[in-house]
Amino acid sequence: MRVLGIETSCDETAAAVVESDGRVLSDVVHTQVELHSRYGGIVPELASRDHLRFILPVVTRALEEAQTERDQIDGIAITSQPGLTGALLVGAQFAQGLAWAMQKPVVAVDHLTGHLLAAFLRYPNAVGYEPPEFPFVGLLCSGGHTALYRVEGFGLDQIFELGATRDDAAGEAFDKVAKLLGLGYPGGPIVDKLAREGDPQAINLSRPMKAKASLEFSFSGLKAEVARYVQQHGVPGDEPRLRDLCAAFQHAVVNSLVSKSVRAAVKEEVRTLVLCGGVAANRGLREAAALATSEAGLKLLIPPFAACTDNAAMIAFAGSQKLLLGQNDSGNLRVSPRTALLRVTRKGSGPRQVTSK
Ligand code: KG4
Ligand code: ZN
Fold first, then answer.
1. pTM of whole model > 0.90?
2. At CB < 8 A and 24+ separation, what contacts does 183-191 make?
């Protein structure tokens, strides 16, 4: 089955053509990073307008690069949740219209499910890449989400949240700390680069929720500590101090992500840990995860960078598994800012929230 995937949930307009066995025939991503960078974060209205501007050219290019005519497409997959409502609506309306015109089925895909299943994508240049076997533990850490899941299959009812962040996502913490330090947006890659040459022990920052046996995360306290440091000492003017601060912050985030991921895999008695989401690009995280999983006798799988950051190939693949089951959401596409996955983590200090849909 050959599927056209479309993704517009946040600040990337993306389209891809993927076979249901995971083969990626094309993967086009138009990023809005520059558009939002001067505001230090994403401006939802600007995001929607830019999706509207680019969705047709991006889809056209994805079909062209895959050397696929419209009538060779068996179905369309569209991100329906979670994300910015206006941005999601652009993609959903476009996908529904195209599906009607092509008389093909269209299926709604949860963005987080897409990230977790991105490990099944087979890029033409990834020779020898072996996708994971079920069950596995997935650490999804991006700008909008940070959570651990037990993944038993492709369906929404086979993916179980083990613990999520109670406040900021890991990528969001990187972005906010970079903003505090005047380093620009997105902050993750810049902090990662500076941290490489810094000494993580030079500045003492606490380890978020270290003592807790739970699989939940918290990063806003750590961000506040960096803010306090800046308040007391000013933004480090000299490069070495700035590198040390980035290294200390990154070390604390990575330590929390890795220790809880390994704890989750051991607790769930699974052999494989999969990293996904934009923060999986972080060098410190990759190194620490490789070391910790080898010590624990676990297999670590980090999909190629293009599969970790927001893309439509992961949406096409996740959608293809629904289409293979004969599902069709045509005429029934709904968008939502929340994930369709069952949430078990208590946000902030409020009551435990268990929501679905
Ligand atoms: O998955 P993604 O592309 O988009 C979302 O769904 O959020 O992730 C983007 C996030 C941003 O917060 C960015 O700062 C972070 O991933 N990121 C990194 C690195 N590269 C991207 N964080 C830490 N280290 C990196 N090297
Ligand atoms: Zn994402």
1. yes
2. 184/37, 185/33, 185/36, 185/37, 185/40, 185/41, 186/33, 186/143, 186/278, 188/143, 188/278, 188/279, 188/281, 188/282, 189/281, 191/246, 191/249, 191/250
